[in-house]
Design a protein that fits this description.
The protein is of the alpha/beta class. The protein has helices at 8-29, 33-38, 40-49, 66-74, 76-79, 109-122, 141-150, 174-184, 193-196, 210-220, 240-244, 271-276; strands at residues 56-59, 129-134, 157-163, 200-204, 226-232. It has 12 helices and 5 strands. Helix 6 runs parallel beside helix 7 (141-150). The longest helix has 22 residues, at 8-29. The protein is globular, with a radius of gyration of 19 Å.
Length: 277
């Protein structure tokens, strides 16, 4: 409700403040830095345009839901070091009515959101249901099964594909060839996985531009059929070390905020070392 009273300049300032809060905590505790920095704007836009928890958002894996958590009453866990451990690193229904599932596994969000939309329709209720899924998670079999079933709905469902051209590491496979074609043609490529499956489709080039995301969400709010919103974002947006070293900063141990260098580098044998032996 507070967000809905703010002007674009104020929301933009909020995005900068949120990024600094995230960086400050991550630099001390470690965590999923890159995924969270990339979705700050789209998360602010969701909570500004939509009416959570009547309108629902399901975060795939949910390791990128920290801005969502801060905006839904849990900011102390990022602002006060004594409370850093108060909240889960993933969505947690016991924490908030804005979280719906205990999620940590990948590729589940579309199926979960489709089920929520079906339940809404059976109860003759209203409200938007959105799944936010990264391009890495999209390659999972359950995600593809979810897309297949989502196309059969005749009611509101928004599937936001957060495409930063990265999973934890580089993406590989035929799916990503098509996503690359769609990015390079601004969604106009002849081959389109999503429309081929019977889904409406819209491409958004700059998912880290707050004004763009506000306008897009306003346009599709209360849509009466399933749509894929293919949003191009930058992993680690706003922090150069995380942009330069996307894989390393997907999840990072505590680091020096000024340089991005690890504060306590390991000098012993790691699990990776053991696996390589």
């Amino acid at each position: 409700a507070d967000l809905k009273q703010l002007y674009l300049t104020q929301l933009t300032a909020l995005a900068a403040e949120l990024r600094q809060v995230l960086l400050n905590k991550f630099s001390q505790t470690g965590g999923h830095l890159g995924p969270n920095l990339g979705v700050v704007e789209l998360t602010i836009a969701f909570h500004t345009i939509f009416n959570s928890p009547t309108d629902k958002v399901v975060w795939d894996v949910s390791h990128q839901s920290y801005t969502h958590k801060i905006l839904t009453g849990r900011k102390q866990a990022w602002l006060d070091a004594e409370h850093y451990a108060d909240v889960s690193g993933y969505t947690e229904p016991e924490e908030s009515p804005h979280d719906y599932f205990n999620i940590g596994h990948t590729s589940t969000s579309i199926a979960l959101a489709t089920g929520m939309a079906s339940a809404r329709d059976l109860q003759h209720k209203t409200g938007n249901v959105m799944a936010v899924i990264g391009d890495g998670s999209l390659s999972g079999g359950l995600a593809l099964e979810g897309l297949n079933m989502a196309a059969t709905l005749n009611s509101n469902l928004i599937i936001l594909v957060n495409d930063n051209n990265m999973a934890i590491a580089e993406n590989h496979g035929g799916l990503y060839t098509n996503l690359k074609e769609l990015r390079e043609t601004h969604g106009q490529a002849k081959t389109n996985l999503f429309t081929a499956m019977g889904l409406d489709y819209r491409y958004v080039e700059d998912g880290n531009d707050l004004a763009t995301m506000l306008a897009v969400f306003k346009d599709i709010k209360d849509i009466d059929h399933p749509i894929v919103l293919h949003v191009h974002t930058e992993k680690g947006h706003g922090y150069q070390p995380a942009i330069t070293h996307k894989e390393a900063f997907h999840w990072h141990v505590p680091f020096d905020l000024a340089t991005g260098k690890t504060l306590h580098p390991s000098t012993g044998e790691t699990y990776t070392d053991v696996m390589h032996q």
